[in-house]
Known about the structure:
The chain is of the alpha/beta class and about 110 residues long. Helix content is about 20%, strand content about 30%. Helix 2 links the parallel strand 2 (about 40-45) and strand 3 (about 70-75).
Amino acid sequence: xxxxxxxxxxxxxxxxxxxxxxxxxxxxxxENNNLIExxxxxxxxxxTNDLDAAFPAKAFRELNMTSVSALDALAPGIKNDLxxxxxxxxxxSKDLNQINHIYLDEAKNxxxxx
Length: 114
């Protein structure tokens, strides 16, 4: 089993923005790691405390990936953290030779090594 990390920021605090950003992040992770729904074991999302208009995990259902078990949680309140940030860790059963973690938009600042 492998895990893939990803994040996107700055997301506006409304349902459409949160779900659209989550879909974009999921699809980028799938594409950049050559994955399909059946490769995903589960997904764990966190959101910064300023994002309270929707659950990011809903994006899987809207992408018709109903077999994915996904959970949402509030990220810890870390001083100087990005606002409007959605993070995800996706567990996959596929044996990957290379893992491509995905950081989009302002979330690229979280991992300057990527």
